[in-house]
Amino acid sequence: MEERLRGRSLGFFANRAIEHKDKLHQDDFAGAELDRDSSRLHGSGNHPPIAHLRLRALEHAKKMKRFRGGRRTDPAATGDAGTGDSVPGAANWVQMGPIAIPNGQSLGGVARIIVSGRVASIAVHPTSPSTMYLATARGGVWKTTDGGATWAAISDNQVSLAMGAIALAPSAPDTIYAGTGEGHIYYLTAFNPLNALNESYQGSGLLKSTTGGTSWTLQGTVEFTGAAFYRIAVHPTNPDLAYAATSRGLYRTTNGGTNWTLLAGGLPAISATVIAATDVVIDPATPNNVYCAFWGSGIYVCTNGGSAAVTPSWTLAPGGPGATAGRIGLAIAPSSTSNVFALAATPGGAYLGFYRNTGGTGGTFNLITPSSGSNPAVSTSKLFIAVDISTPDTVYLCATSMHKATRNTATGAWAFTDIGQSIHADVRTMAMHPSLNQTVFAGTDGGIYKTTNAGTSWDDTINKRLCTIQFEFADHHPTRDAVVFSGTQDNGTDQYRASEVFYHADDGDGGATAIDPSTPANVLTERFSISPRRSTAGGGFGTFTGVSAGLGGSSLFYPPLALDATNANNIAYGVVPLALDGSQGTGGWSTTVTLPGAAGLPSAIAYVSSTLIYVGTSSGEVYRLVKSGSTWTATAIHAAPLPGGRWIWDIVVSPADPKTITVALGGFGGGHVYRGVVNAAGTAATWTDHSGTGAGALPDAPANALVFDAVTSRFYVGTDVGVYVTTDDGTTWNDFRQGLPNTAIYDLKLHGPSRLLRAATHGRGMWEREIDQSSMNDSIVYVRDNLMHTGRGTAPYNQPAAFDDPLRQVTLGDHVFWWHCADIKNDSDGPGSYQMTPSSVDFYAFESQLAHRDPVRTHVNHAFVQVHNRGIAAASVTVKILYADASGALPNLQSNFWTAWPGNPSAGAWTPIGSAQTLTVKPGEPTVFTWNWTPPSTQAEHSCMLVVCDSAADPIPAASKVFDIATLVNSERRVGLKNLHLVDPTDDTLVLPFDVLPRGADQIRIVLSPDLHGWHVGLVVPKPVLNQIHSSIARVPIPTEAHGRLALHARPNLPKLDATEMLKVEPIAVAGTGDHVALVDRLHHDQPYAAAIVLQHPPKAKRGSITIIHEHNGQVLGGNTFVIAPPIPKTADKRG
């Protein structure tokens, strides 16, 4: 499961297809990262090395005007750094996440684990091991000081976030060397002939810090721009002496990185057969002894490498893999440094051997043949080795899985044990704890994992708070900003659900995605190659099925797919020939359209209507497909000055004229945004460059995504060097990166209803920006009024949920209301025990493990409130939680509530739970507040819980401090309300009371979700009201067990409920919704009265919801929703 081919631009592999008929295993696509980068980056003609072109583009971007809301600013005048740094008080990009993805895929397929993005290298502080550093793939350097409980990105705006190696100086651990350009993916034989690529696109030098990562200096720009780092080794007592194994050879610095020298003295030169220096290690006991490995040459030793005054000399070590080897990894046993080990692959990436040298610099590397166990599945990109700190008889080998090699000291036999089946596949690197010999850290394509028992079991919680997912494509819900689906490199398809904790929707790799705008429960995605998949259940895990039957031909690694903008049943899929289907892939793909003369593969599709499609290819070709009758005809419309041979990466069709299109191009050299206007006959197009000129030109870097905002007529483009906007149709482009990390933007989507621009990055997660805002608070505190609410604007009211959430007792299609606050949960011991200790409930547990339970009267309950901060600065937030009887109309807050804040108001309808709490809420990481409370035995069954948050950094405005609860909750993002159903310790009867405030001929609408169909429903009202209701509604006796419950809810100031009969409510199905609805009308009465729903479940009851809505002349006067659910386990869903 390597980095995958996304395919962009002209280059060495622009025409390389993936044949569907080959049915290759995922690991056969080992060159995907390089295929994506090398093949998409070049334009036609001769250019400087592409790494230099990228740096040139970044320098150009620094000089561009900024765009903030409706105005352009000069970075020099405003003090901007000319990078993506956030600007206080201004509109900025903010991080959406994910800071955790639960239930991700493990190599063995059984364990479901937390995943993040690829980790290239790990460095552990030698004397304070709770401090660690991660070098991630296009996500930069991350640091923890508490053993992985929290992580922070510490290099977001450095020149490159594509990290290859990181090392600390053992004698001065705040000194960090971090090499940019990832060696793991530098050379992958499957897609890379020896003469094809001799540099790493993202390599921009070495980052050096002497302050533990709080500041950085870029070094070695001449030596390392365009290079890739495999390993960095620092002298054990001299922090200024370090070695770097790179794609350009072995380098050394003796002055802290100010100068780097390419070493020779017996070492081979990089050539067509000697590919790179792939590892270097220094003997910690005798630092003059240094070992290095060269791909295509072998292992070299040095005995004078520890002195700055001496130029090292090297000799080829006897034995070992030699010149027949590809990549080689090295490790020295810390407890016995004469023991040196090597792990080697063939040039093609297969396992070559495991070697041991017991004689140090004078010894021989002997091949070890294990007596048991399988050989590790190494490759050119997955090969690393480390030795147990306490013994040379235990060695760890990184490959597709992690293996442990152990030596029987009595017999001398070695055995291999696979210990990586329960963590993510593709173990790129590892690190040992400096003092605990069984504590090991593994860096994988799914993030970092920790074992404290030498691999018997693994801990995935160390993977939380790393926002490093490598997104490929994204699509969002047509009307709500709470849902985004996105494909990822090696972490499947994931879903944003208005939470910083994303949902794992499908396994494998994740490519293109699409949500049906007319039926959003239909979601399309793919894994890799020709593998479209479809869910009709909102994209829930396990609901995707393959829809590739009938497809064939060739495609990119991630073929594009598109739904017809006028009829979403129609889908186009980017294979050769182009495939069409009228049933979202379930109809067999019976229609194919040949693109005449196409040299490239489909790379972008715009499905304009049922009779018009535009297709762009990986060779810079554009085709217009028109349907006449039942026949599709494709016409090539590309022509000069549209550059040939560069990938068409996105196509935008003018909403005013379907014959006008704008395309985004990859590559370097020339423009990146071109406009094509098709002639009247539809046979050709006239093209013009809309990339701007001079200082207002778009940076010359691959353009990966293009968005048009029809409201403002602005274009936004996502590139390898950030996001840019034009307000004058491409004459001038402006920098729009403010707040974005310096990594590649792989997709952009504009959510029109919310005016949010979303950016899917390849290594730093997903980000968003409100495009109409010129300013914002530095801290934006909020709670979500329901699952479909993101804390922006009024909460969705009576809207269907777009996904299941069993922890909140919500199923797909359930209607949500503003009294369903998604950030309030209660835990009780009703089922016998609490789900977890309150101190263990963080944002991850709150979202993925903790189920809301009914509060139990007279028992200690745990109330949890999760508070979010969608800003750029942390905020100290004070939170207060209260409860009240909600059987009738919601009571107002006490009159002194706001003046008493944060203290308790005078006694009244709303009772505080404990005292207000104040905690820090970080941007992009929710904080969970916890209280214990004991509801009294007399507390109403239908009660509500109210949460109010306030902060000096983001205060509730005075005008919002009202007393009416409905107004307060609907207008204030810092306030949330949750309906509660209180139960007694042994409560088996479901009686749901409510009050009715009549206005004449009223009606009660009762809505049962699909799974409650079959429950017996009764409506209990006072006798005078009962007598007014049409006799066609049957009366049945009230169940005996309900009498006591009804008496408990008697209201002394309201007419009594009839204690003998209730109305038998028989809901009927509503077409298209799955809901069953009953309408009880003619509810005449001249004063308020109490009512209740009595529920009796069938033998095999399911969970579901019942909503009661009080209406008058079609107007909603009030309502309530009850969720009926048995106790559920704390894990949200079970995955095999």
Write the layout of secondary structure elements.
Blueprint: E1 18-19, H1 32-41, H2 50-62, E2 66-68, E3 71-73, H3 75-78, E4 94-97, E5 101-105, E6 112-115, E7 119-124, E8 132-136, E9 140-144, E10 152-153, E11 163-169, E12 172-180, E13 206-209, E14 217-219, H4 221-224, E15 229-234, E16 242-246, E17 249-253, E18 261-262, E19 277-282, E20 290-294, E21 298-302, E22 315-316, E23 328-332, E24 340-345, E25 351-357, E26 366-368, E27 384-387, E28 394-398, E29 402-407, E30 414-418, E31 427-432, E32 440-444, E33 447-451, E34 471-476, E35 483-488, E36 493-497, E37 503-506, E38 514-515, E39 523-526, E40 532-535, E41 545-546, E42 554-555, E43 561-563, E44 571-573, E45 575-576, E46 578-581, E47 591-593, E48 602-609, E49 612-617, E50 622-628, E51 631-636, E52 648-653, E53 660-665, E54 673-678, E55 685-689, E56 703-709, E57 714-719, E58 722-726, E59 733-735, E60 745-751, E61 756-761, E62 766-770, E63 781-782, E64 799-800, E65 815-816, E66 824-827, H5 843-848, E67 861-869, E68 875-885, H6 897-900, E69 911-912, E70 917-921, E71 927-933, E72 942-951, H7 965-971, E73 975-981, ...
Antiparallel strand pairs: 1-42, 2-3, 4-62, 5-6, 7-8, 8-9, 9-10, 11-12, 12-13, 13-14, 15-16, 16-17, 17-18, 19-20, 20-21, 21-22, 23-24, 24-25, 25-26, 27-28, 28-29, 29-30, 31-32, 32-33, 34-35, 35-36, 36-37, 38-39, 39-40, 40-41, 42-45, 43-44, 44-46, 46-47, 48-49, 49-50, 50-51, 52-53, 53-54, 54-55, ...
Keywords:
1136 residues; mainly beta; Neuraminidase; five-stranded antiparallel sheet; 9 helices; disordered N terminus; disordered C terminus
